[in-house]
Amino acid sequence: MTVTAPTTTPPTTPAASTAAGNTLQGLGSLADNFNTFLTLLTTQLKNQDPTAPLDSNQFTQQLVQMTGVEQQLNTNSLLKQVVSNTSGGVSTAVSLIGKQVKATSDTANLTNGQAQWTYNLPATASDLKVQVVDANGNVVDAEAPTDLTAGDHNFTWNGKDLTGAQLPNGGTYTLKVTATDSTGTALNTTNYVQGVVTGVTQNNGATSITVNGGAVDWTKVIAITQAATGS
Fold this sequence. Notes:
Radius of gyration: 29 Å
Largest sheet: 7 strands, antiparallel
CATH class of the largest domain: Mainly Beta
Order of helices and strands: HHHEEEEEEEEEEE
Distance between the termini: 20 Å
Structural class: alpha+beta
Strand content: 25-35%
Number of domains: 2
CATH topology of the largest domain: Immunoglobulin-like
């Protein structure tokens, strides 16, 4: 069974943006009022009549009220973060763990001595070149596949550079596909990675899934299938 996954994260609503702005404004106003309150309190204590000292209960009640408001504003901020995490796809992405996925991605990690991609040719090509580029922009592998037909094509790189040296596992590499048709017009190719999802991470509100040891934006997933189970 194949399920088409959503391609975009839910947009931030105006109401959510307004609520976030109100919370920040409230915290700012509270800090200003609290500082003003402490200044007034200190001034009053310094200038009070020793024979008729001020009632400390009133100040204590005001402190308690201001602390309660601050805690409520902080609670609102925490709730906002929880909502952001949920809408950012964490809960949905977690459900992908253990599933076989296909996602749009030019990058893949070198794992167990190889990196794998699938590239799509929208039409039959007359010329085709495939390059693997490292994180510094250096070409570490270049090939000219002979299958020029339209459709998906699997490509596996053995992890060896142009000199034949085996590169270490863990590096992230980019696949660049250049193809032209019979008229010399460039074809718009698309690259994919496929594999079982083994983890989910979130950084600065962006949710990624781990496929073949590499991080992939979960919103780029275009197909999900049940992973095959061994006996």
